[in-house]
Amino acid sequence: MLELRPAIVVEADPVPAGAGADGPRARAIPEQRLVVELTSGLSSAAGADAAGAPSRAGERRQAIADVALVGHAEPGDEVIVNVQALDLGLGSGGFDVVHVNLTRGLAGEGVAGAHVMKLNYTSLQHAVLPVDDHGLEVPLQRPVAVLALHAQLAAVAWAFARSAPGRRLGYVQTDGGALPGGHSRTVATLRDRGLLAGHVTAGAAFGGEGEAITTAGALHHGVRSRGWDAAICGPGPGIVGSGSSLGHGGMAALDSAHVALALGCPTVLVARMSGRDRRARHRSISHHTLTVLDLLLEPVTVALPAGISTPVGADLRAGLGRVFRGGRDAPSTAPEVGRPARIARHDWRRASVALPDFASAGLPAEVAGHGPAEDPLFFGAALAGGTALAELVGAREQEASLEQEAPRAQEAAFGGERAGGA
User: Fold this and answer.
1) Which residue in 188, 212, 304 sits closest to 263, CA to CA?
2) C-alpha–C-alpha distance, residues 112 and 155, integer Å
């Protein structure tokens, strides 16, 4: 059940002068950070919240407002905030979320021609103009890197740009983590730095530079209409998890990889790895990655940092044992693998990484409070994924070049034969 509380805005990040809730300049600022002070409510009894609990009036809390959905806020505005994530102490939800601004209202103009709902049948449903292409042109033949966590995005994009300069890399945001596209400071930074060529939100995710109804539609549009040479596909910030085998946001990677494969995209699964995660199930190779590799219907590419040997032989359990006991920064124990042959069928590669250079690049680089120096295995695996993605772009371009040269070579040979015969 929704846990909503009335509040007053105490502090608000500035927005451009003259930008209104429905103005284009306001939409350019996707998310506004606020400090709100809870009140006792418009009609609640003195000393109690609207729900009848002891009053929390006067409590100040961090909050965010999605500007495209609820407009911008200013100090003194009366708002209704969803307090549940902060009350539960969720690691990826340490703030309240503005549900409605009672002072400014929500009389926006919307998007011209918008006719498809996102967040449909909820109180925040809104119409968007989908970018999904009308035609279907497959195979796309452009490689796709599938993420387990949003925290991998910056490292993958940076490594790709380093290994494939000048190539256009797009990002498709799926569900599994935060749904608002504007919530990612990482995307904004990568776009500003030219490391991403575009950002399309797919499915339930919303607020990107383009809105797609499906992940397949987003990838197809990015490659065919926006000219992406490669794509990254993965969830927004944060991740839903229950500790169970299948009940977590990491399972979105299974769907994304299947979509990429079905569209004819060489696919890299960026391994979630860690040497510092406090949860044993995420150390070495996370169970999130292993489960996806086990359940995939077709093989994909998996890259590990060059300092760690790739699994060898038919018995992956023994191979992983060698990997995680042999790497300099690797954990001392191998992960549990229920069906080794299912994992071993994938294309395991080693990829060079430049961890110190990435750490000094000034990009967002933190997972569970750890940076590249504290958890080199996590960021090394993400960098390896970006390098492998760039290698697949290079391989595709080489194949395309050979295909173009073959007819010319045949024509030249045929012409020589005719000349000799004459």
Assistant:
1) 212
2) 36
Q: What is the pTM of this model?
A: 0.84
DSSP 8-class letter at 48: B
Q: Summarize pLDDT for 309-362 with one digit per residue, the tens.
A: 555 554 555 666 655 554 455 555 556 667 777 888 899 998 989 999 999 999
The candidate with the shortest Cα–Cα distance to 158, out of 169, 148, 173, 142, is: 169
Identify the residue whose tokens are 């950070």.
Answer: 33
- The string over 188-199, giving b where at least 16 C-beta atoms fall within 10 Å of a residue's C-beta and e elsewhere, is bbbbeeebbbbb
Q: What is the pLDDT of residue 286?
A: 86
Which of residues 413 and 246 earns the better pLDDT score?
246
DSSP helix/strand/coil, 174: strand
Rounded distance between C-alpha atoms, residue 211 and residue 204, angstroms: 10
Residues contacting 119, CB < 8 A, separation 6+: 125, 126, 179, 204, 206
How would CATH label the architecture of 4-101?
Beta Barrel (2.40)
Largest CA distance in the chain: 106
The yes-or-no verdict on residue 130 having pLDDT over 70 is yes
74/17 Cα distance (integer angstroms): 12
CA 36 to mean position of chain CA atoms: 29
d(CA 88, CA 106): 28
Question: Among 9-18, 273-282, 299-308, which range has the highest average pLDDT?
Answer: 299-308
Extents of the domains making up the chain: 4-101, 144-403
pLDDT in the model for residue 4? 93
Inter-residue contact 18 to 27 (CB < 8 Å): no
Q: What is the pLDDT of residues 364-399, one digit of tens each?
A: 999 988 999 999 999 999 999 999 999 999 998 888
Cα–Cα distance list, 416 to 77, 243, 412, 420, 422 (Å) = 82, 68, 6, 6, 10
Give the count of beta carbons closer than 10 Å to the beta carbon of residue 350. Answer: 16
